[in-house]
Amino acid sequence: MKNGKYGCAVWGCGWVASGHINAYLKHPDCQVVAIGSRRMESIRAKQAEFGLDCRAYTDFSQILNDDEIDIVSICTPNCQHAQEAMLAAAAGKHVFIEKPIAIEEQDIPKMVAAIEATKVHTLVAFILRFNPLVNLQRKLIADGELGNIFMTNVDYWFGRERKGWMKHKEQTGGAFILAGCHSVDMARYIIGSDIERVSAQSAMVGNYYEYPPVETAQVRFTNGALGVFTCSLVGTNPYTANISILGEKGTIVNDRFYLKRFQGQADFFTLDTGMKKSGDVYDHPFPAMVAHFVECIKEDKESPNNLRSAVNAHLTTLAIRKSAEADGKPVFIKGMELSF
Predict the structure, then answer these.
(1) Domain residue limits, the chain
(2) What pLDDT does 297 receive?
(3) Cα separation of 282 and 285, whole Å?
């Protein structure tokens, strides 16, 4: 810290980096010390966007060696996240990791071991965990309002042109890995149960992506609940993140609720939590995430949204890819391992 503020750096200057920078600038205990990218023009564009006079680094080692940097946001292409997060932690930096944490299954246990061997704190950018509606749904289920949960379905649909590295298979990893991981994590976070079995299919639609932009999966949770997950990066649709949760005492469909405790309820009732449904990074709760992360660092406590908390959701997305490539053969998740 310097002058009572945490020095923050954002490595990677894509679209999502703006959400991180904006959040750091809004927090009174944070100062943006540096922005980094392999391309200086990308750094200059972000500096101009926010009117920042900060250090510009084109090599990640410059961030690692800067003693005034306490927190690093990893906002680079998916294939770089695992190695960069481990390097940042080894350098003593607290790490705010964009999803996905990794695109290869063997990297996940390495990450967990390497980062937990340090004294740094981590936060994974699963934005839906900071959505008031999601946390209301989670609380209702934890309080037993829905009784035994037996089905949880999710959809992630966002048909838009993703430029640059996002269309390349070796940099992205897959549709669920790139984007649908938000909905996968939302499902297991809300019902409080990990996923243990996956059977998936994928489809090539169009010729823009080097990998199938459409994936579907049947899953089984460790609590016995079943689910159907879908992800589409193509099509004519707005940002859509659906969730349906069926329990013996009630049902939730997005912001609509039908509960046995309300005798005489004829149809779903709707609750408006005021959260905008948007795929725009400026509408995402990054300020709340940074505030939470800073509190955890100050109090030296682990965030419930740390690296380890994100492992099962990421392994599920990797299992979806693995099963789809094997024409639907079931993949089992046990601990940090995937197996047929």
Answers:
(1) 6-127+283-306, 128-277+313-339
(2) 97
(3) 8
In whole angstroms, give the CA distance from residue 319 to residue 333: 8
Residue type, position 56, single letter: A
Q: How far apart are CA 136 and CA 81, in angstroms?
A: 31
Sheet containing 149-157: order of strands: 269-270, 256-259, 250-253, 240-247, 149-157, 226-232, 214-221, 195-203, 331-334, 337-339
CA-nearest of 286, 300, 301, 295 to 24 is 286
User: Which percentage of the chain shows pLDDT scores above 70?
Assistant: 97
pLDDT tens digits along 161-211: 888 899 999 999 999 999 999 999 999 999 999 999 999 999 999 999 999
Cα distance between residue 227 and residue 214, in whole Å: 17
pLDDT at 279 over 60: no
Phi, psi of 218 (to 5 degrees): -100, 130
Residue type, 122: T
Fold assignment, 128-277+313-339: Dihydrodipicolinate Reductase; domain 2 (3.30.360)
What pLDDT is attached to residue 278?
A: 59
6-127+283-306 falls under which CATH superfamily?
NAD(P)-binding Rossmann-like Domain (3.40.50.720)
Task: Find all residues with CB under 8 Å of 22, minimum gap 6, and list them.
Answer: 50, 282, 286, 287
